[in-house]
Specification:
Layout: E1 13-15, H1 29-49, E2 63-69, H2 81-87, E3 91-96, E4 102-108, H3 122-140, E5 143-150, E6 153-160, H4 162-174, H5 181-184, H6 195-205, E7 211-216, H7 229-238, E8 240-247, E9 259-263, E10 270-274, H8 278-302, E11 305-310, H9 316-329
Parallel strand pairs: 1-6, 4-5, 4-7, 7-8, 8-11
Antiparallel strand pairs: 2-3, 5-6, 9-10
Helix pairs in contact: 1-3, 1-4, 3-4, 6-7, 7-8
Length: about 325
């Protein structure tokens, strides 16, 4: 039901300033969100993990230790093609843990993320994950930075540590959303930041291997060949990349609600659709199936891990399942 239109507007990248003290009358949403996450999410994770956050998000270790011959079950993306060509036998790069890891969050807050029919909007689900990830990384003692983008532009928050850094990231990303929820519901201006541009910026600037979360709904006007696919593959070749897909259940199954007025969140274009018409429902189901299959192929080709978060569900359970899956691979 949502469509993303490609635009080639230039983007402005600004380094975020240090966060200022919140004054009376100013919105305290980032502070409130972090407190809520600490109480409702991190506290529950503490109950499962007994306060041990070591390796919570960390998958394959990041520091090259040695090259060895391939064994059944090894990841294909770890193949060292130079050594393989030289020896005639397939060799794998083996890594060891680094004591300090820098984590980056690429966060999509564009107009298509301004949608939700359940617990929260997709952009609010994204910020919940961002706040949780930044807090967990801070507890682990590592640095975390962020690249956020929306129709308001693209903003870069340099890496830092601790709770103050998590709050800084939430403050700066919240600033990309607009002054209020009421304003956020209005048709947006032409995009001045996109997922493709954010990934290209990350690929150019991140030289040292890092753990990278790409938080987006990954919608594209061309699902078979999304404009961001090449940038994601480039990043995954050098970094440990996790695609955090945010979705709303209404995007996958058309609700039976009679005639509805729909609006493209990025262009403001409106149209009517009869959700009770069997032909409409069949056509929508076919489009959804094709879009889901295309996205799965694209993410698999990029060889990235995928964490799916629904606006209808709290993030604790998906996070735990994701963590156990990555730990099991180690």
């Amino acid at each position: 039901m949502l469509f993303r239109r490609a635009r080639k507007n230039k983007i402005e990248i600004t380094l975020a300033p240090e966060p200022k003290e919140v004054r009376p009358g100013q919105r305290e949403l980032p502070v409130e969100l972090l407190r809520k996450l600490e109480f409702r999410v991190l506290k529950r994770l503490d109950g499962f993990l007994f306060g041990d956050y070591t390796g919570f998000f960390y998958g394959p270790s990041l520091d090259l230790a040695e090259v060895r011959e391939y064994q059944p079950g090894d990841e294909v993306r770890r193949i060292d093609w130079n050594v393989t060509a030289r020896t005639g036998k397939i060799h794998i790069r083996q890594y060891r843990e680094e004591k300090e890891v820098t984590v980056w969050l690429v966060v999509d807050l564009s107009a298509s993320m301004r949608f939700g029919t359940r617990r929260v909007l997709k952009q609010e689900e994204a910020l919940e994950f961002v706040g949780t990830a930044a807090a967990i990384v801070g507890r682990h003692g590592d640095k975390v930075g962020a690249i956020g983008f929306s129709e308001a532009g693209m903003r870069v928050i340099p890496p830092g540590t601790g709770r103050r850094q998590a709050l800084r990231i939430l403050h700066e990303l919240d600033g990309l959303l607009g002054p209020s929820k009421a304003d956020r519901a209005q048709p947006s201006a032409p995009l001045s930041g996109s997922l493709e541009q954010a990934l290209e910026y990350a690929a150019r600037t991140l030289k040292r291997r890092t753990l990278l979360f790409v938080v987006s709904d990954f919608l594209s006007p061309n699902p078979e060949e999304p404009s961001w696919a090449q940038g994601l593959r480039r990043l995954a070749y050098r970094h440990d990349v996790v695609a955090v897909r945010i979705f709303d259940p209404a995007e996958k199954e058309l609700p039976r609600a009679g005639e509805l007025r729909m609006r493209d969140p990025e262009s403001g274009e409106e149209f009517w659709i009869d959700t009770g018409d069997p032909r409409v429902r069949r056509a929508h189901a076919a489009l959804v199936q094709a879009r889901e299959a295309a996205l799965e192929r694209t993410l698999r080709a990029a060889q990235v891990d995928v964490l799916s978060l629904s606006t209808a569900q709290e993030i604790v359970e998906p996070l735990l399942k994701f963590t156990l899956r990555r730990r099991g691979r180690r």
